[in-house]
Amino acid sequence: MAPAPSVRGEQLPAGGAADRRVDVGESPARRADPPQPARRVAAVLVRLGGSCVVGHGAMLGRRTLPGNRRRPGRVTLAADVASPSAAGMLAVVPSSAARRTTLALAATLAGPAAWVARAAWGLPTALGASQREVQASAAGSPQFADGRFHNRLSTPARPPASAQRGLLRQMHEERDTGLPARPVPVTRPELPAQAGELAVTWFGHSSALLEVDGRRVLVDPVWGERVSPSPLVGPTRLHPAPLPLEELPQVDAVLVSHDHYDHLDLPTVRGLLRTQAAPFVVPLGLGAHLRGWGVPEDRVVELDWDGAVRLAGLTLTCTEARHFSGRFLTRDTTLWASWVVAGPRHRVFFGGDTGYTPAFAQIGALLGPFDLTLLPIGAYNDAWALIHMTPEEAVRAHGDLGGGLLVPVHWATFNLAFHRWAEPVQRLCAAAERSEVRVAVPRPGQRVDVLAPPALTDWWSEVGALADEPVETGDGGAGSSVVARAASWLTARRAGD
């Protein structure tokens, strides 16, 4: 195991309401301290003054001072209140009505306040590096101009008006469409002690472990429960991770396609820092995120499109993709990419997350053909058709690349769009059959020997889509994902106006 680097954690600001002491004439049984958010709300109420009064007895750390006479039905501020202005505002009012009113208001506000505090826990760190920090590695890139990276093909930052109208309707009516009806079957991986000649283990979404000519490469590893900067808001997993991160064998490299949360996950990065020694090979700009999260400089390799690095006998080439980047409202400050992993005998193409582009044919001509392609097939929608392939486009891209076996990724694990859960793989299999393309669709956690792939087995139809079941549904996270996309598009539109 690699030694664990020092990574600074986050702490919420310490402290709470000032130690204001009140005497409300309550019995000792009601003097237990309440939760910290309630104390903060109560402190705000004290500052508001007027007819507002702090009830709930010990909500503010109440003590009765010697000589402070109690008068039944009255509330008085103790002589040592922390804020003289608050003391002046606190009037003598009927205590029973005041306590009921203030307690109800404090209880009403304390819950949301506590939730917001939890939702914001660690937010600045998860957002990653600032735009200024990222741009240091972008200078000189042909893809970088006017403060951001660009696709080589024109790719509008916002959808057409017709798609925007449809998106609003889908957010309201179809946000649960992508949920599975039954549990997604997960297989515990059976990983050999030594890496094989050519194999892939799919962990869900775009996370996979490649075995190429006796070496191991981990791509887009995401083990987190939620793909979001917040622990409480954003799309959650639809199935558990098939294997604990610490049980992964040692890998020779970690590849990341871009900085979106479903591809670059802070908790997973920190876990890999503790358990692995391999370098992170990433597109330009992502190194600033990694270094800010404690990844040592000597474990970060940043590449532009068409750049390459040799590691452990493998050549890793950063290749073009048609997508975008951003971890908050600012878009395209880091580069996005696909990847080629080439060994002495075998070659693999990893698409990451991309729309269809003619660049696939160029990549196939220069760096192919490929024994294996991992291509995204899910999260497509008319509103972002240029940056996410449909299953049919994935089959077309596989042909452009000169691919042998196609293994679909970017589906099944997170609800990021409005199609039914199994629809991407159903459409993929139909298109592959028409084009006579060989496909393997592993369960999450299943290892596929590319040189002797298993027969195609339909395991997804039994899972089904919750939208087809006569039950009430909850929020699987699509709404949060689309809100983030909409905010990003709005920011891009304002920047362009």
TrEMBL record:
Q: TM segments?
A: none
Compositional bias segments (type: Basic and acidic residues): 18-33
Q: Please, which domain of life does this record's source organism belong to? A: Bacteria
Q: Which Pfam families match?
A: Lactamase_B_2
**Region (Disordered): which ranges?**
1-38, 138-165
InterPro entries in the cross-refs: Metallo-B-lactamas, RibonucZ/Hydroxyglut_hydro
Ranges for the Metallo-beta-lactamase domain?
204-398
Coiled-coil parts of chain = none
Which SMART domains did the record assign?
Lactamase_B (SM00849)
Annotated Gene Ontology cellular components are: cytoplasm
The UniProt entry, under PANTHER family, shows: N-ACYL-PHOSPHATIDYLETHANOLAMINE-HYDROLYZING PHOSPHOLIPASE D
Q: What is this protein called?
A: L-ascorbate metabolism protein UlaG, beta-lactamase superfamily
> Which species is this record about?
Geodermatophilus siccatus
